[in-house]
Each structure stands twice: as structure tokens, then as C-alpha cells.
Specification:
The complex is a heterotrimer.
Chain A lengths: L1 E5 L9 H13 L3 E4 L21 H15 L8 E4 L2 H16 L1 H10 L12 E4 H6 L3 H7 L8 E4 L21 H8 L3 E2 L13 H4 L1 H17 L4 E4 L2 H9 L1 H7 L8 E3 H8 L16 H12 L1
Parallel strand pairs in A: 1-2, 1-3, 3-4, 5-6, 5-7, 7-8
Chain B lengths: L8 H14 L11 H5 L10 H10 L9 H4 L5 H5 L6 H13 L13 H6 L2 H11 L2
Helix pairs in contact in B: 1-6
Chain C lengths: L2 E6 L11 H8 L5 E7 L5 H14 L3 E6 L2 H14 L7 E5 L1 H5 L5 H20 L7 E4 L3 E5 L3 H12 L3 E5 L14 E2 L4 E2 H14 L3 E4 L2 E9 L2 E8 L14 H5 L3 E3 L8 E3 L1 E2 L11 E2 L5 H5 L6 H5 L12 E7 L1 E4 L3 E3 L16 E3 H9 L13 E8 L15 H15 L4 E6 L9 H10 L3 E4 L5 E3 L6 E7 L4 E7 L1 E6 L1 E3 L1 H10 L26 E3 L9 H19 L3 E4 L4 E3 L19 E4 L2 E4 L19 E3 L4 H13 L8 E6 L3 H10 L8 E6 L7 H9 L4 E7 L9 H18 L7 E6 L4 H17 L5 H13 L1 H7 L1
Parallel strand pairs in C: 1-2, 1-3, 3-4, 6-7, 6-18, 7-10, 18-29, 20-27, 21-22, 21-27, 22-23, 35-36, 35-37, 37-38
Antiparallel strand pairs in C: 5-30, 8-9, 11-12, 12-17, 13-14, 15-16, 19-28, 24-25, 25-26, 31-34, 32-33
Helix pairs in contact in C: 1-5, 2-3, 5-16, 6-7, 6-15, 11-12, 12-13, 18-21
Classes of the chains: A alpha/beta, B mainly alpha, C alpha/beta.
Chain lengths: ~300, ~130, ~800
């Protein structure tokens, strides 16, 4: 299955490991990510004001690319656009929803973007890779596991943008199960962090690191107290705030034991034994290899 | 913050401006405090989110001098739980916009440390600049 | 035909604007008019006397009064006309005050409109025929559904008054939720102590047939003639033999969570619902009993031990049918399922309970170790499942502020060292003694924190609960560790209410509770004659209000049954038997199922039919009609409304439903708001009566625009009318569009009598729009009528 793929800026650089591992995992499951040609930055956060339509241009141009891909036969009647970055997912989907609710806004935008070859026809669906994985049979997932880690204690961390606001959320914002179900199908041990949907601080990290340190400390501590050995996430900003910024947490709390935070696709790539090149662990600040290799030895 | 507010047309205008930009009706707020209880960043704020809503309801422009809506990370937990169905995150955005549209930026790239600029993911920088600069 | 016409000056209210003499002059020679009189005040004794004397002197057989709104004095004038020996339905009114002199300020156009309105009334009265209010016998049997405190009160009032009551309760014992409570607010009476005598009275009452562990299977029929079928569930214990000694339960090997104790304790598969249950008889839970689930000769210990031979594993459910004359629905409430708010951790955290669970802990407190230990620091969280859009429960549940105050005080008294907090949004202490009770709680040191708790976290070691909430009064964020958190869950409609609503076709309010006939004046009636609602089935309330409604519904039922006969409203549908061909297309058009086919013709059940008229549009032969508002009468009114239209003038016909829109048009006049005088309002009980054919007839006869207004679904006394009207309207809009006529000429709005600006806006916008449009050509109008006559039903099949 070929599906249009929107990477977003961060996945090409600071979160390249997210992209590499995801593409490898998808491929092993028969899903080919076809990168959208000439994609542009989505804007990172959705426009929340009622009166600044200009901020919707960026997402809409990406939707038009998907329509062009279909027209050019690059994909076959596939109007879903898969994203990995949770923030891109949120921003794109919010724009799409706004256009669906206010046809006049879309008309205005289409009018202004007269240099585009197509008018956006509101037929693109923004989906997250987790939703694609939800539709794949548990058996198929199981068959691909070459490196089982049945007593690896994994705690999923959702953050905000996958779940809120409710109208674009991938699952119930108070009690989501989509990552849990995936991890169960991957036969690892599930650990519940009561703060799994608590915000990591997001963009506040740019101007106020202390906020991130405080929030991260809470989130990670709760995961550890529940027994977690690794944390998986789907957002490059959450990953940065919880992983890279453990440096600040350790500086403040000398007794804090670091815990690896990786993208769920990195974990999957490891479980599927897709090869070192697809794990991308070099970009992780707290090295997951230590924990994963230890577990591998134990289970072997 | 002063402890007196004399009601005038200016208050009405301010409330209506916030309503317009946010698309919400702030007078629906029943001051239950759920938003404050849900906010992961409330400890960093000078006034609580529901206090911010109260001042907007009354049309008190002193709310623009607080840092509450700047500390907001747009996590939407308040919106998800508001029993009156108000999108408080949008109200916060409206307050940011009112300040930013006066060309008053909240952050300056010069104030971001060199080493941070090297490691910060793009999504954080783009997001921060969209939220905090005009 | 000898018609007498009266035109009222209304002390200047009419005559200052409308030239009354001119109106009298214009109509005095019209067809059938024998006598015309203008009077200062028609409603006065003098005016009434005129009618009676003139009828005698001039041998009048029909009367038209042109004065204020019929919603004001129609009943009065009808009585006067009857006193003079005529049938009340040979009478019509023309509304030349609220809908003319009060809202149109140009004397010229007001007077012309008044003349038209009188002519419209004349057109209708000419076809009025005498109608009788049919009298039907009614007996003294009542079905009360629900054996909680409300149903019990209603049953006792009725039984004591000599009426025969069938009290059907689906649980094994009566008493409802009240039997589960510890003490009641604000007096702190012991709930079981005060309800005990009532339960005993009910069970022993010679006039009450108590059927417990029974459910309503079906109800058919109508006032005075309901046929009820009850399904008596099998107890597997013969209640005539059981003496409730309890040996069976002692030795039963199966333990399951006890529902009466809200899952906090265990009961056996053979059990009695609670120690003071009425009737105090055992029953076997067929889902958990080993013998009943696995069959054969498994277990059977209870049967072996019972000294009375009361166990009967062969018991079967029984269907019992009987007839009743009236029904009272007192199906109570359920509590909001706190698992719908996962943020509070109910079901996950062991120290989070519901208020009802706490009631059981306190109620059973004196008879042994507590069902669950309660620590020192307790938090109550209010509004769980109330006032919350996120779980679609916007209503306030009324009792939670008070029950939390009560539970807090009881806990404090049991252990004064406790530290108790109630986290609330607003404190509702509205009833008798409530505010004083709240003050007592505060006096006892119970702390009220004005902040709605957003989430709870559990310490995995200590199992204590952590709450962070804003105190909106001090604006501080309050943090605390609690030994116990009690969720004050809200009242939601019960599943029983929903089942009965489906069976009886009862309307529901927006909040899901059963809907009363009128929110102010008929709080326990429904729009179905003979069916009443009472207690929490109608909406959240406390015990005294439930008891009041129990008695109120009993009294309303007695009012209907006492005289032994009841009258049915004659304004209902009827069949032109000479035209009807028995095709049966109309059967499914009635939401009340009032139409059937008998002897090859459609037959209307005159007791069930409420006279909305929506069936009329479904008859391809025009065989269905509505009394007092016949097709002929409507067409003639339309003719009169448009006859005087001048070249270049625009005329709008407004079809107004009696309950809301007509009243709304009156209210606009009363408020002296002005709207275009080109409107001519035609009153009908429900606008669903206005068929597509009539709409097209109006266009054919010269209407430039048509506006239709009907109550919205909540306020409408006619089930399904709004949906029917929408169907009729979209059909006609299609036809208009196909013929190149703007569909904006036809407008429908759901209105309420209070929405003055809405009506005003619709009419003025429509008028403005029409003035800009090219008038519809005569050819197009004729074409519309052709379609109406020949193509409506084939159109229907396509659409």
C-alpha cells in the first residue's frame, strides 16, 4: 500500500531517527510512505484565532499536493495523508476541520492561492501512523517480531497534540488506548503512567527551560514509579523535552536516574530487528541501547 | 492589580474584542475553576486561568499585564474539560493576539542561548515564534 | 344560513385605528350575513347579552365576532353562544386587535386588512357544522409504574380514595432509592424508618395490587381503555410459602456483589433484597444460581434445606393482562455512571466512592463492621455528571449539594476528628430548611471550597488520593491528600423511564427526562390523555417534591375518573367515506397510530387522535380532513385573504400553529411592534395540517410568499409535527424550483411564543425579498395548481 507521507521540518533533521525507523517499520508491514513533493512547513501550531486565515495557507498547500499526487498517478485513489509528528498531525487536521466547517474561508483561500493548479476540494484526510497501525492485524505485527522483549516495561506517553482538542483527537483524551493496544500486540509489558496525557510544556522550552524541567520531572517520575523502563512517544517536541532536557533534571535532582525516551517506531524497529541503521539511537540523548540490550540478553 | 473596576463602555468593547478573535462567548464562564485545576502550568502563572477568564468577562484590561496567557502551552486540557464547553485555549490566544498585534513581541531571538539554538527542534522554534512574536 | 357579525371597538383599542363603521358597512351584504352590530366592549356583560338576544330575535344560526385574539375570549364567547342555544362550533372570531389595530399603524391599511380578516372568518363560518364533545365512560382502575416513594404515594392516595391500583415494580421489593438512604436532609430522619409504614400500607392495602419483580411488557389503547400486559419474572421461590427464615441463603455456595449495597458487600444467589424489604420474600438470581445456569441435579442445597417447600426451580415467567383507565409513570431515576469521567478514577482507585455507596456504608454502620473503612480526611466532589457539557448532562441534579452537606455532617458526627471538604461550583440550598441546614454544616466546621475538581491522582502505596483544585474565592490553588473521595453523582433518566416512554410514546425533554404537558401549569400531565408522570422520572427532585408530585398525579387521575365519563375534544381528523378507497397509505402517517382500516375504509380512533392533521397530506384522494379546519374552509380563507390584492402589491399568507406561532403573533401586537400589513394570518392547530396541495393552492390564488410557523419539537403538543412540516415544505420547494420560482418564497421556522424578534425578522425579511422579486406570472401559478392536482403523489415517490 502506498500512502502520501508528510514529514514536517523536524523529522528531516533533529528527529531523523523518527522518520528512518518509521519508514523501515512501515515497509516491513507492506506500507510504503511516499513523501509528498514540494511539501512545506505546516506551521507547527494550529491557528486559534477566528480571523487570521493566512495561517491556513501552509497546511492547505500540502493538501493540494496530495490531490496532485493522485492526479499524477503517484498514488492510487489515496487521499489519506500520514504524519508522524504529532504537532504536524494536530496543525494539519485543525486546518482541515476549519475548512470543512467554514466553506467561505476555503473559498477565500482558494481564491488567493490562484497560482496553485488545483483548488483544494476538502477530500484529504489527515491520519497518524498509529491509526494505520491500528488497522493492521495483530497477527501480522506478531509475525514481524524477531526480537521479542516480553518483560520490557514500556510506558506510552501521548502528550497533548495527538489527543486534544477532542474534535481532532486520535482517541479519548482522558483515557486513550491506541498506543496501549499497539504495545500489547507487540508483546511488551505495559506500564500505565497516570501523567501520560499531561503536557510536557511544548514550545515553552524555547523561552523558559525551568518549566520544562519541572513538568518533565513529574512526568518521568510517575512513569518510573509505575515501573517503566522505557518511555515511548510520538512527538519530536515531547521527545526533546523529556529526553534531551533530562540533563537539566539531573542537574537539579542529583538522584534522578535517567530513563530512555524513544519514538514508538524506534522500539518497533528494534523488536522487528530491522538493523542498526533503522534504529537511530545515536540521536537519543539517553541511550536506549543499554536498557534494550540488557532485556534482550535476559529474554535470550 | 487594582482592587477596583469601574464599569464603562470600554469594558464591553474589550470583552467583545476577545469574543470576536477567539470565537467564544466568554460570559458563559461560570467560574467553576476546572480549567485551573486541569492546567499543568498553573504553578508558573501569576493569575489562574479562571481568574483570567473572569477579568475578560468583566472586560478588565489589566488582564493583559499578566503573564498567564504567555505561560500557556496550548495543551487544550482546559478546553477538553470545561463543563460549559468554552474553548479557553482560544481565549488565551486572543489575549496574546491583542498584545502581539500592537507589535509587542514576547520573546527575542537574541535571548535564546547559542547552544540551545543548535539543539532545539525546529518545531519548537517555529511554534514559539508563532505564539510569542508578531 | 343566518350569520350575525359583531365588530368590537374595544374601547378605542380597535376603533382608534380601524374604521369599525366602514368594516361593518363593507361586509353587511356578504353572503349569509343577516345582522351586523358594532359594540364598544364585546366581552362585557352587555356584549354577551347582545349575542343572546340577537340570536333569538333575528333567528341567527352562526356568529362571527371581530375583536381581540381568540386565544383570549374564544372560550367565553363559545359558552355564550351555547347558552343561546347554538352549537359552540358554529362560531368564529376575527383577530382585528392583536393582529391588526395593535400592529399596523396606518389606518387605511389596517381597515382594509380588518375587512379581509372578517371576510376570512365569514368564509370559515359558512362551512362550520355543529360538533359534539363525545362522552365516553371511564372506570376507576389505575396503573402505577414504579414502586419508589412517588409511586407509593400515588398508589396510597388512589387506594385510600377507593380507586383500584395496579402497582408494578421491577425490583423484588418496593421502596426505590429512598430505601437505600441512611438519613434524609434536612431533618436527618432515618429513611427506612419513615418509609417503612408506607411500604407496609402499600403491601396490605385492599385496593392496591402489588406486583413486584415485574415489568411492563406492553400497553395499548387509550384513556378509559388501556390494556396492560405485565411480565412477572420468575422468583423460583413461592412467595406464599416462603417465610423468609434465611436458611437457604446461609448455605448457598454462590457469592456475588450485592447491588443493594452498591457492590460493597456480597450476597448469595438466593437472597432477599434487603433485611426490611417489602415484600420480605426470597428470590433466586437466575444468572448466578448453579442449578439454574448449569441445570441437571447440581447443587439444590436451598431446596433441600427449605422447611416450607418454597423453592421451585421450574418457575417460569408469567404474562398477566388487565385493563386500566389511567396510568401514572413514576419510574424514578438512575445515578450518573462515574466511569464516564475517568479523571476521577472511580473503579480504578479503591478509595473513590459514590455518594450512594457512602449512604450504604452509613446506613449499615450500626449493624457490624463498616462495609468499608472511612478515614479522617474526606473530600466530596460535586457536580459529577451534572452541569457538564463534556458528558452531555447539562442539567443541575438539584439534590447533590444537600445530600453532600448531609453526608458530611453524618461523617463528622460519627467521628468529630474528621476533616471534611466539599468541592462545589454553586451551592444550591433552595428548599425549606435547606439554607439553615447548610449553615449548621458550616458551623460544624465542614469546609466548602468553591472549585470544581478537574482530576484526582492516587498514591500507589498509601492509596490516598491527591486533589489539586482552585479555590475560586481566594484564587489560591488548593492541594490536599485525602483518605476518601466521594463523588456526588447526578441524577439521570432511568432506563425504566426510557422503556416506558417508548411503549407509551411519551415525549422527552431535551435533558432526557419525561416531558410534562406544560412546564408551568401542567407539571404532572403528559400530552397523552390519561397518562401522567411524577417524581424523578419527570426531572431531578428531592423526596418532598417527589411525594408532592405523587399526590398531584393521583389527584389529576382522580379528576378524570371521578365523574365516570370524560369528554373528547371534537377537533380531530375525519374521513370522507365517499372518497376513501381504503388504500391504507395513511396508516403509517400517524405517530399516535390513530388510523386503521375497517370495512375497506380508513377509520380514525377519536380518543387517540389529537387533531394535528399531518395524515391529510398522505392521502392521494383528499379523503382525510380535519374538523373545524377543513380543506374547503382553508381554501376559502385563502381565497378571501388574497381576493383584495391590488396590482403591484405583495401579499404573504402566514400559517400559524395555535400553540406557539399564533400566540407569538399576538404577543407582537401586545408589544405594539409593527410589521408589514401585507400579511394575512390563518390559524390552525398544527401547521403539519397544511398539505403541499394547500400551499400550492395559496400560490395559485395569488400569494407572493408563504410563511409557516410551528412550535419546536420540545414545545409542540403534536408528536412529529415539525418533521412532517419540513417534508411538506421541501416537497413544495422542489416544485417551485423546478418551475423557476424562487424557493425562498416559502419559509418555515420553528418558533416559541417568546421569540418576538424572530417572527418579526422572518416577516420583514420575506417582505423585503418579495418586493425585489419579479411577480409570479399567472401561467406559472396555474401550472403550480396543475401539479398540485395531478402530480403530487408521483412527485412524492421520486422525492
Amino acid at each position: 500500500m502506498k500512502i502520501p507521507y508528510y514529514p514536517g521540518c523536524t523529522l528531516k533533521t533533529k528527529a531523523k531517527n523518527f522518520e528512518i525507523s518509521s519508514i523501515a517499520v512501515a515497509k516491513s508491514l507492506g506500507v510504503e510512505f511516499v513523501e509528498i513533493p514540494r511539501w512545506n512547513c505546516c506551521g507547527a501550531v494550529p491557528s486559534l484565532s477566528s480571523d487570521d486565515l493566512i495561517r491556513h495557507f501552509a497546511p492547505i498547500r500540502n493538501f493540494i499536493r496530495v490531490e496532485e499526487m493522485n492526479k499524477a498517478g503517484i498514488v492510487d485513489n489515496e487521499y489519506r495523508m500520514v504524519t508522524l509528528c504529532a504537532m504536524c498531525y494536530n496543525t494539519l487536521k485543525m486546518s482541515n476541520l476549519r475548512m470543512r466547517r467554514n466553506k467561505e474561508d476555503l473559498d477565500k483561500i482558494n481564491d488567493v492561492m490562484y497560482l496553485e493548479t488545483e483548488h483544494y476540494k476538502q477530500d484529504v484526510e489527515v491520519v497518524h501512523f498509529l491509526e494505520i497501525l491500528k488497522d493492521i492485524d495483530a497477527d501480522k505485527l506478531q509475525k514481524n517480531i524477531k526480537n521479542p522483549l516480553p518483560d520490557l516495561k514500556v510506558s506510552p506517553y501521548y502528550g497533548c497534540t495527538l489527543l486534544r482538542p477532542k474534535e481532532i483527537g486520535i482517541d479519548d483524551p482522558e483515557d486513550p488506548k491506541i498506543m496501549e493496544n499497539l504495545l500489547t500486540n507487540l508483546s511488551v509489558t505495559l506500564v500505565n503512567n497516570p501523567l501520560k496525557t499531561r503536557c510536557c510544556g511544548s514550545y515553552q522550552v524555547v523561552s523558559d527551560k525551568d518549566i520544562i524541567t519541572s513538568l518533565g520531572y513529574d512526568i518521568l517520575n510517575n512513569a518510573k514509579r509505575a515501573g517503566a523502563e522505557v518511555i515511548v512517544t510520538s512527538c519530536p517536541l515531547c521527545q526533546f523535552n523529556l529526553d534531551r532536557r533530562q540533563k537539566d533534571i539531573i542537574e537539579l535532582h542529583h538522584d534522578f536516574e535517567p530513563i530512555p525516551v524513544l519514538y514508538f517506531t524506534q522500539l518497533m524497529a528494534f523488536l522487528f530487528d530491522l538493523g542498526e541503521e533503522s534504529y537511530g539511537f545515536e540521536q537519543n540523548y539517553i541511550d536506549p541501547k543499554k536498557v534494550l540490550n540488557r532485556k534482550e540478553l535476559v529474554s535470550n | 492589580m487594582s482592587n477596583k473596576l469601574i464599569l464603562s463602555d470600554k469594558n464591553v468593547e474589550f470583552t467583545e474584542k476577545v469574543n470576536e478573535i477567539s470565537g467564544e462567548v466568554v460570559t458563559l464562564c461560570e467560574q467553576c475553576g476546572t480549567c485551573s485545576g486541569s492546567c499543568p502550568l498553573v504553578a508558573e502563572m501569576d493569575i489562574t486561568p479562571s481568574n483570567m477568564m473572569r477579568l475578560v468577562e468583566l472586560g478588565d484590561e489589566e488582564v493583559l499585564d499578566t503573564k498567564t496567557f504567555w505561560v500557556c502551552a496550548s495543551c487544550f486540557t482546559c478546553t477538553t474539560r470545561c463543563p460549559r464547553g468554552i474553548d479557553i485555549a482560544k481565549v488565551g490566544e486572543a489575549l496574546r493576539q491583542i498584545k502581539l498585534r500592537k507589535a509587542i513581541d514576547r520573546i527575542d531571538i537574541k535571548n535564546i542561548a547559542e547552544e540551545d539554538r543548535k539543539i532545539l527542534p525546529q518545531v519548537a522554534i517555529v511554534a514559539a515564534f508563532r505564539k510569542f512574536t508578531s | 344560513m343566518r350569520i350575525g357579525v359583531y365588530i368590537c371597538h374595544c374601547g378605542g383599542n380597535i376603533s382608534d385605528v380601524v374604521d369599525v363603521k366602514k368594516v361593518a358597512e363593507s361586509i353587511k351584504d356578504n353572503e349569509g350575513v343577516t345582522f351586523v352590530r358594532d359594540v364598544e366592549h364585546m366581552c362585557s356583560e352587555e356584549g354577551q347579552k347582545y349575542i343572546i338576544d340577537d340570536i333569538k330575535e333575528h333567528n341567527l344560526d352562526h356568529i362571527v365576532v371581530a375583536s381581540c385574539s381568540p386565544l383570549f375570549h374564544e372560550k367565553t364567547f363559545m359558552k355564550t353562544v351555547e347558552k343561546a342555544g347554538l352549537n359552540a362550533y358554529n362560531f368564529e372570531m376575527a383577530n382585528i386587535r392583536e393582529q391588526c389595530s395593535w400592529c399596523h399603524f396606518s389606518k387605511g391599511s389596517a381597515t382594509s386588512k380588518a375587512i379581509d380578516l372578517v371576510n376570512m372568518a365569514l368564509a370559515k363560518v359558512r362551512s362550520d357544522i355543529p360538533l359534539e364533545r363525545q362522552k365516553l365512560p371511564i372506570g376507576r382502575r389505575v396503573l402505577v409504574i414504579g414502586g419508589g416513594i412517588t409511586g407509593i404515594q400515588a398508589s396510597l392516595d388512589l387506594g385510600d380514595s377507593g380507586f383500584e391500583v395496579y402497582l408494578v415494580e421491577k425490583e423484588p421489593a418496593i421502596g426505590g432509592k429512598m430505601a437505600k438512604l441512611s438519613k434524609t436532609f434536612p431533618t436527618e430522619d432515618c429513611a427506612t424508618c419513615i418509609i417503612g409504614p408506607k411500604l407496609a400500607d402499600c403491601a396490605e392495602h385492599p385496593n392496591i395490587n402489588l406486583m413486584t419483580y415485574s415489568e411492563i411488557e406492553s400497553i395499548t389503547g387509550y384513556l378509559g381503555n388501556f390494556t396492560v400486559t405485565v411480565r412477572k419474572k420468575p422468583r423460583y421461590v413461592d412467595i406464599d410459602k416462603c417465610v423468609a427464615c434465611g436458611i437457604c441463603a446461609d448455605k448457598c455456595p454462590v457469592k456475588v456483589p450485592d447491588e443493594f449495597n452498591e457492590g460493597l458487600s456480597l450476597r448469595k444467589a438466593i437472597y432477599v433484597q434487603n433485611p426490611v424489604a417489602v415484600p420480605r420474600k426470597y428470590l433466586i438470581d437466575e444468572k448466578n444460581c448453579k442449578r439454574l445456569v448449569q441445570g441437571g441435579k447440581i447443587c439444590g442445597i436451598c431446596e433441600k434445606l427449605c422447611t416450607q417447600g418454597a423453592i421451585n426451580f421450574e418457575d417460569k415467567e408469567e404474562l398477566i393482562s388487565f385493563n386500566v383507565d389511567t396510568i401514572i409513570t413514576a419510574t424514578g431515576y438512575e445515578l450518573f455512571d462515574p466511569e464516564k469521567k475517568p479523571v476521577y478514577g472511580f473503579g480504578k482507585y479503591s478509595n473513590v466512592l459514590t455518594a450512594l455507596q457512602l449512604e450504604r456504608i452509613i446506613a449499615t454502620g450500626s449493624s457490624g463492621p463498616p462495609l468499608k473503612p472511612i478515614g479522617k480526611r474526606v473530600a466530596f466532589i460535586q457536580c459529577v455528571g451534572s452541569r457538564d457539557e463534556q458528558v452531555d448532562r447539562e442539567n443541575c441534579s438539584r439534590i447533590c449539594c444537600m445530600y453532600a452537606t448531609k453526608l458530611a455532617q453524618l461523617l463528622k458526627r460519627l467521628d468529630p476528628s474528621r476533616d471534611i471538604y466539599i468541592f462545589y461550583t454553586d451551592l444550591r440550598a433552595y428548599g425549606k430548611g435547606f439554607e439553615e441546614y447548610y449553615k449548621r454544616a458550616q458551623n460544624a466546621g465542614i469546609k466548602y471550597i468553591r472549585g470544581r475538581v478537574a482530576e484526582i491522582r492516587e498514591d500507589s502505596q498509601s492509596k490516598k488520593l491527591h486533589i489539586l483544585s482552585e479555590d475560586t474565592l481566594s484564587r489560591k490553588m488548593i492541594e490536599g491528600e485525602f483518605d476518601l473521595v466521594v463523588l456526588s453523582t447526578g441524577i439521570v433518566p432511568s432506563s425504566g423511564s426510557e422503556q416506558i416512554a417508548d411503549i407509551l410514546k411519551l415525549a422527552r425533554s431535551a435533558d432526557g427526562f419525561l416531558q410534562e404537558a406544560h412546564p408551568k401549569f401542567r407539571p404532572v400531565d403528559t400530552l397523552i390523555d390519561g397518562v401522567f408522570i411524577a417524581g424523578c422520572a419527570q426531572g431531578p427532585k428531592d423526596i418532598p417534591d417527589s411525594v408532592a408530585q405523587g399526590s398531584a398525579s393521583a389527584s389529576r387521575a382522580m379528576r378524570l375518573m371521578n365523574k365516570g365519563v370524560f369528554e373528547i375534544e371534537p377537533i380531530i381528523a375525519f374521513v370522507h367515506n365517499d372518497i376513501c378507497d381504503g388504500c391504507g397509505l395513511c396508516i403509517n402517517s400517524c405517530p399516535l397510530k390513530a388510523i386503521s382500516i375497517e370495512n375497506g375504509k380508513a377509520k380514525i380512533n377519536e380518543v387517540i387522535c389529537k387533531g394535528c392533521g399531518m395524515c391529510i397530506a398522505d392521502c392521494p384522494n383528499d379523503a382525510l380532513d380535519l374538523r373545524y379546519y377543513t380543506n374547503k374552509q382553508l381554501m376559502e380563507q385563502i381565497d378571501e385573504a388574497l381576493k383584495t390584492k391590488k396590482e403591484g402589491e405583495t401579499r404573504i399568507i402566514v400559517f400559524a400553529d395555535n400553540t406557539c406561532t399564533y400566540r407569538l403573533a399576538d404577543n407582537i401586537g401586545t408589544a405594539r411592534l409593527s410589521y408589514p400589513a401585507e400579511t394575512r394570518i390563518i390559524r390552525v392547530p398544527s401547521v403539519s395540517r397544511i398539505t403541499p396541495k394547500l400551499l400550492l393552492y395559496a400560490f395559485k390564488s395569488g400569494a407572493d410568499g408563504i410563511f409557516m410557523g410551528e412550535c419546536d419539537n420540545r414545545a409542540s403538543p403534536y408528536t412529529g409535527s415539525v418533521d412532517k412540516i419540513k417534508k411538506n415544505v421541501s416537497l413544495v420547494k422542489e416544485i417551485l424550483k423546478k418551475d423557476g420560482i424562487s424557493e425562498e418564497r416559502l419559509k418555515f421556522a420553528e418558533l416559541l411564543a417568546s421569540l418576538l424578534t424572530d417572527f418579526y425578522k422572518h416577516i420583514t425579511e420575506l417582505t423585503k425579498f418579495l418586493k425585489k422579486e419579479e411577480p409570479i406570472s399567472i401561467e406559472k401559478r396555474e401550472r403550480l395548481w396543475e401539479i398540485a392536482k395531478n402530480e403530487l403523489f408521483s412527485e412524492r415517490v421520486e422525492a
